[in-house]
Design a protein that fits this description.
Blueprint lengths: L3 E4 L2 E4 L4 E7 L9 E6 L6 E6 L6 E3 L7 E6 L4 E6 L8 E7 L10 E6 L1
Parallel strand pairs: 2-10
Antiparallel strand pairs: 1-3, 3-8, 4-5, 4-9, 5-6, 7-8, 9-10
Length: about 120
Protein backbone atom coordinates (compact mmCIF):
# COMPACT_ATOMS: atom_id res chain seq x y z
CA UNK A 1 0.00 0.00 0.00
CA UNK A 2 1.40 3.37 -1.04
CA UNK A 3 1.97 5.88 1.70
CA UNK A 4 1.87 9.62 1.13
CA UNK A 5 3.21 11.87 3.87
CA UNK A 6 2.65 15.60 3.52
CA UNK A 7 4.57 18.10 5.62
CA UNK A 8 5.60 21.72 5.77
CA UNK A 9 2.33 23.35 6.64
CA UNK A 10 1.92 25.82 9.44
CA UNK A 11 0.83 29.29 10.39
CA UNK A 12 2.02 32.14 8.22
CA UNK A 13 1.07 35.76 7.83
CA UNK A 14 -0.63 36.91 4.67
CA UNK A 15 2.02 37.63 2.06
CA UNK A 16 4.33 35.03 3.51
CA UNK A 17 5.65 31.78 2.09
CA UNK A 18 5.63 28.09 2.87
CA UNK A 19 7.13 25.07 1.18
CA UNK A 20 5.18 21.86 1.34
CA UNK A 21 6.68 18.43 0.82
CA UNK A 22 5.10 15.10 0.02
CA UNK A 23 7.09 11.91 0.48
CA UNK A 24 5.82 8.84 -1.31
CA UNK A 25 6.62 5.21 -0.62
CA UNK A 26 5.71 4.22 -4.17
CA UNK A 27 8.54 2.83 -6.27
CA UNK A 28 6.49 3.93 -9.27
CA UNK A 29 6.41 7.57 -8.11
CA UNK A 30 8.48 8.75 -11.07
CA UNK A 31 6.03 7.19 -13.52
CA UNK A 32 3.05 9.32 -12.62
CA UNK A 33 1.83 12.86 -12.98
CA UNK A 34 1.59 14.13 -9.43
CA UNK A 35 -0.63 16.77 -8.00
CA UNK A 36 -1.37 18.91 -5.01
CA UNK A 37 -4.91 19.28 -3.82
CA UNK A 38 -6.50 21.20 -0.98
CA UNK A 39 -9.63 20.96 1.04
CA UNK A 40 -11.49 23.72 2.81
CA UNK A 41 -13.74 22.89 5.76
CA UNK A 42 -16.99 21.42 4.55
CA UNK A 43 -15.88 21.46 0.92
CA UNK A 44 -14.73 18.91 -1.61
CA UNK A 45 -11.03 18.46 -2.22
CA UNK A 46 -9.92 20.68 -5.11
CA UNK A 47 -7.04 20.72 -7.53
CA UNK A 48 -4.14 23.09 -6.89
CA UNK A 49 -1.27 22.08 -9.16
CA UNK A 50 0.17 19.16 -11.08
CA UNK A 51 3.47 18.16 -12.62
CA UNK A 52 4.23 15.56 -15.27
CA UNK A 53 6.29 12.51 -14.48
CA UNK A 54 9.51 14.03 -15.76
CA UNK A 55 8.71 17.47 -14.37
CA UNK A 56 8.42 19.36 -17.65
CA UNK A 57 4.69 20.03 -17.83
CA UNK A 58 3.00 21.85 -14.98
CA UNK A 59 -0.54 23.04 -14.49
CA UNK A 60 -2.10 25.30 -11.89
CA UNK A 61 -5.47 26.32 -10.68
CA UNK A 62 -6.19 29.90 -11.70
CA UNK A 63 -6.34 30.95 -8.08
CA UNK A 64 -2.68 30.07 -7.46
CA UNK A 65 -1.04 30.84 -10.80
CA UNK A 66 1.97 33.08 -10.41
CA UNK A 67 2.15 32.44 -6.67
CA UNK A 68 2.65 28.67 -6.28
CA UNK A 69 5.30 26.50 -7.90
CA UNK A 70 5.15 22.72 -8.04
CA UNK A 71 8.28 20.62 -8.41
CA UNK A 72 9.46 17.09 -7.83
CA UNK A 73 12.57 15.10 -7.08
CA UNK A 74 12.15 11.61 -8.48
CA UNK A 75 15.39 10.46 -6.87
CA UNK A 76 13.76 11.10 -3.50
CA UNK A 77 10.19 10.19 -4.42
CA UNK A 78 9.21 13.62 -3.18
CA UNK A 79 6.84 16.28 -4.43
CA UNK A 80 7.05 19.94 -3.44
CA UNK A 81 4.83 22.99 -3.48
CA UNK A 82 6.40 26.40 -3.00
CA UNK A 83 3.70 28.81 -1.94
CA UNK A 84 4.43 32.52 -2.06
CA UNK A 85 2.28 35.59 -1.47
CA UNK A 86 -0.10 33.53 0.60
CA UNK A 87 -3.62 34.81 1.07
CA UNK A 88 -6.20 34.08 3.71
CA UNK A 89 -8.18 32.13 1.12
CA UNK A 90 -5.27 29.70 0.71
CA UNK A 91 -5.83 28.36 4.23
CA UNK A 92 -6.76 24.70 3.88
CA UNK A 93 -5.49 21.19 4.35
CA UNK A 94 -3.13 20.32 1.50
CA UNK A 95 -2.76 16.82 0.08
CA UNK A 96 -0.74 15.19 -2.65
CA UNK A 97 -1.60 12.28 -4.90
CA UNK A 98 -1.29 11.18 -8.46
CA UNK A 99 -3.44 13.10 -10.89
CA UNK A 100 -5.97 11.66 -11.26
CA UNK A 101 -5.80 10.24 -7.76
CA UNK A 102 -4.85 6.57 -7.73
CA UNK A 103 -3.49 6.12 -4.24
CA UNK A 104 -5.02 6.45 -0.81
CA UNK A 105 -4.90 9.94 0.65
CA UNK A 106 -2.40 10.89 3.31
CA UNK A 107 -3.19 12.89 6.41
CA UNK A 108 -2.52 16.20 4.69
CA UNK A 109 -0.78 19.23 6.07
CA UNK A 110 -2.63 22.22 7.46
CA UNK A 111 -1.89 25.67 6.12
CA UNK A 112 -3.19 28.59 8.14
CA UNK A 113 -2.85 32.17 6.93
CA UNK A 114 -3.36 35.07 9.29
CA UNK A 115 -4.43 38.41 7.89
Amino acid sequence: QVQLVESGGGLVQAGGSLRLSCASSARSFSSFTMGWFRQFPGKEREFVASISWIGIITDYADSVKGRFTISRDNTKNTLYLQMNSLKAEDAAVYYCNTKPARWGWGQGTQVTVSS
